[in-house]
Amino acid sequence: MLDMVYVAGVFGFIGGFILGQMMLYFLLRHKSREELLNDRFLKWTYGLGNWVVAGFSSYGMVLMYQYYFPPS
Fold first, then answer.
1. Res 14: pLDDT
2. Residues 53, 14: contact at Cβ < 8 Å?
């Protein structure tokens, strides 16, 4: 049963990554293609932000799994 916590973390990470991509699509919809390709600030902040959202989502799924399925 303890191994399932890894599955919850992986599903949370994948879901968070998709959520981060949706967030980026919404936040960057008014930027031009040249801005997206050449602006280093956008690459670092928004690119890193996507991974942060995925990490927090994975952590949240693990915490929810441990709350609803505590080790016996």
1. 97
2. no
53-56 LR contacts (CB < 8 Å, sep 24+):
53/16, 53/17, 53/19, 53/20, 53/23, 54/13, 54/14, 54/16, 54/17, 54/19, 54/20, 55/13, 55/16, 56/16
19 three-state secondary structure: helix
Residue type, 22: M
Task: List pLDDT tens digits, range 2-50.
Answer: 678 899 999 999 999 999 999 999 999 998 989 888 988 888 888 899 9
